[in-house]
Specification:
Blueprint: H1 4-29, E1 39-45, H2 64-73, E2 74-81, H3 87-96, H4 119-125, E3 129-135, E4 151-155, H5 167-178, E5 184-190, H6 201-206, H7 217-225, H8 232-262, E6 269-274, E7 280-281, E8 287-289, H9 295-298, E9 299-300, E10 302-305, E11 312-319, H10 323-330, E12 357-361, H11 368-375, E13 397-401, E14 405-409, E15 415-419, H12 439-452, H13 467-470
Parallel strand pairs: 1-5, 1-6, 2-11, 3-4, 3-5
Antiparallel strand pairs: 2-9, 2-10, 6-10, 7-8, 12-13, 13-14, 14-15
Helix pairs in contact: 2-8
């Protein structure tokens, strides 16, 4: 039998361990704080790449206000991955919590099926007022993405200069002011940083440049399809114009968040700031566009702003399809089994290196501009999207990535493997070097290869050249 002193010591240790465990669990659970029945505003900034934001380490002054707000009160997911490199399938994932391929969303002519369940439908069923504002193609009723929105302000046409801010934020605030009851779910979709790039002189001056020509879609097609492809000068010109557009978005979003905070609903509203894909500027052969599965295209911002929150960064790869489950969890609502992706709270409950995100694409650089030229002026008018009835038979590209590794399967069946920590620009394909990689690196890379699936022709598994016997 233990002495009273030893029993007291044991009790103190157990209480201490229990308190420590409670603190750890509580801290984990608060990655996204609870905000029961809060209003939710989901902002999708089309074509906004994480790579071009100061919050994510960009060295150009594109987004000082977002960086400041994120440090003060934003929960920043450091590696958020879009499930496709373009608008329609990515928003399908963002709304349904599922991979777009599950609904046959591959081409501009594909439409979300009526039996799909969206986060807007779920929130509407649970008493939320729902509204969407989305100028521009694809995120429109024609493609089935209005499901669950009681009202939808949308149009296929965009302003000729593509400028949607601050107008879209003003529209959102005007709708909020008209609401007589809460809670509400508001979706805002801005194409502002997507082409065309027509920044103001003030925005150019803010990033330290001037006299950069505007960039319109025909310029992008011409540069990418001319003999030899885009030059370094083309890439730099397009990038500067894009960065200045990001700076305009930064100013408009900060103003929007300030006005929201000062409103009657500010203390009870969560804002989710994200994107559907990024943009390429010569990193891997395209410029001013998005078609491939490299980081500049599929790594997007994902930041949750809570009233009175504190800044926090969350490592590890997460998918934007986790947004629906996260909204339900942070709002204190029962989970919806149809949303397959785990809530983003789960990112803190696993080792960051164990989290894996997937993306896929049917349209590659080999055919993207032919497709766009074909559909640019007809889709939604004379060519109407329909629900896909036949299974996909064409080859598609796919990727899987963790915090450390990314593997890409190309359309022709070849593979690329990148160490994202050592090679964040994805310039050194390690797949041909598989046999010479250290065993521990192969061990980690095999995790994402398993997630990618298919017949990945690694020359050996974990051990090569007799290493198994050396263990």
């Amino acid at each position: 039998m233990q002495s009273p002193v030893r029993m007291l010591v044991s009790f103190v240790i157990l209480v201490g361990l229990g308190y420590l465990t409670f603190r750890v669990i509580s801290s984990t659970a608060r990655v996204l704080p609870s905000c029961p029945r809060c209003n939710v505003i989901l902002i999708s900034n089309d074509a906004l790449s994480a790579k071009h934001l100061e919050t994510y380490g960009y060295d150009k002054p594109t987004s000082p206000l977002l960086k400041e707000l994120s440090e003060e009160r934003g929960i920043v997911f450091e590696r958020a991955i879009a499930q496709a490199p373009w608008t329609l399938p990515s928003h399908t994932a963002m709304f349904t919590g599922r991979y777009p391929s599950e609904f046959g969303i591959w081409l501009p002519t594909d439409k979300l099926t009526q039996d799909a369940k969206t986060i807007a439908e779920t929130l509407q069923e649970r008493g939320y007022q729902t509204h969407a504002i989305s100028p521009g193609i694809f995120v429109q009723p024609e493609w089935g993405l209005d499901q669950g929105f009681a009202t939808f302000e949308g149009t296929i046409d965009r302003p000729p200069d593509g400028d949607h801010v601050p107008a879209i934020f003003d529209q959102g605030l005007a709708w909020i002011e008209q609401q007589t009851q809460e809670p509400f779910f508001l979706f805002l979709h801005s194409w502002h940083v997507n082409s065309p790039y027509t920044p103001s002189d003030e925005a150019l001056a803010a990033i330290g440049v001037q006299d950069v020509p505007d960039v319109f879609f025909p310029n992008i097609v011409q540069v990418n399809t001319k003999p030899g492809g885009a030059t370094d000068q083309d890439n730099e010109q397009f990038r500067i114009a894009y960065d200045a557009e990001v700076r305009e978005l930064d100013t408009a979003f900060a103003d929007f968040l300030g006005k929201l905070d000062a409103s009657e609903v500010g203390e009870n509203t969560v804002v989710i700031f994200t994107s559907d894909h990024g943009e390429e500027f010569g990193e891997h052969g395209l410029t001013g566009f998005h078609a491939q599965l490299y980081d500049e295209t599929i790594r997007v911002p994902l930041i949750y702003f809570f009233p009175g929150g504190k800044g926090k960064r969350v490592p590890g790869a997460v998918e934007i399809r986790g947004i629906p489950s996260s909204i339900l969890k942070l709002a204190g609502l029962d989970p919806e089994p149809v949303f397959e992706a785990p809530a983003h709270q789960e990112a803190s409950k696993q080792a960051p290196a164990d989290l894996v995100a997937r993306s896929a694409a049917l349209l590659g650089r080999h055919n993207i501009f032919d497709i766009l030229r074909k559909y640019a002026t007809t889709i939604g008018r004379t060519i109407h999207p329909t629900e896909r009835t036949a299974p996909l038979t064409e080859p598609y590209a796919a990727s899987a990535q963790s915090m450390v590794w990314q593997i890409i399967r190309n359309f022709d069946g070849t593979h690329e493997l990148y160490n994202l920590l050592e090679d964040p620009e994805e310039l050194s394909n390690r797949f041909p070097e598989w046999s010479s990689l250290p065993t521990e690196q192969r061990r980690e890379a095999l995790k994402i290869i398993d997630v990618l699936g298919g017949d990945v022709p690694v020359p050996c598994g974990l051990y090569c050249s007799g290493e198994e016997n050396a263990q």
